[in-house]
Specification:
alpha+beta, Alpha-D-Glucose-1,6-Bisphosphate, Chain A, domain 4, eight-stranded antiparallel β-sheet, 5 helices, 41% strand, globular
Length: 165
């Protein structure tokens, strides 16, 4: 399994997932940079994501939806705040309405992704910082930890393919 650890820290208002992959940093970076590859792992296997926009630049935005088994679509947004290829990106994110407009019901969160080489492998540390303990708990209750485990669990198969597959 690729997920090494999941740490929910209520004092730091964070959820951190560490995963390791049998691929170099440049290859793992592609799964974030290329929206077609991102679609293949962002979200649990039964709730695939479709990225409608993905402007992978500082200040750029991404809009996507996840399709649940009954066909319902849950929309989300990202705004990239930092992109330092090939090993560091940060983005704010949250839920959106059907037109992609951010909704404040669950608040926004901030994600930091760091990739570091460990020999010919890569360690990915993805940390999400929340605005409040209530928001962290709400997202946890909605299955965020399990969803991230399942989503990241799909990355190995993707990395085994050529980078532009």
């Amino acid at each position: 399994m690729t997920v090494v650890s999941v740490d929910k820290n209520t004092e730091a208002l964070s959820l951190t997932v560490v995963a390791e992959f049998d691929a170099g940093v440049q290859r793992v970076w592609k799964i974030w940079e290329d929206p077609r590859q991102l679609e293949r792992w962002w979200g649990p296997p039964t709730v695939p994501a479709t990225f409608e926009t993905h402007d992978f630049t500082p200040g750029g935005k991404a809009a996507y939806y996840m399709t649940v088994p009954d066909g319902t679509k849950a929309h989300g947004w990202w705004q990239f705040t930092t992109i330092n290829a090939p090993d560091h990106l940060e983005f704010d994110y949250g839920f959106a309405d059907d037109q992609g407009t951010p909704m404040g019901e669950h608040g926004a969160a901030h994600a930091t992704v760091k990739l570091e080489p460990i020999g010919d492998r890569t360690r990915m540390t993805m940390s999400t910082r929340f605005d409040s303990e209530e928001q962290l708990q709400k997202m946890s209750d909605m299955g965020m930890e399990e969803g991230l485990r399942e989503a990241i669990g799909q990355v190995d198969a993707l990395l085994a393919e050529p980078a532009n597959a």
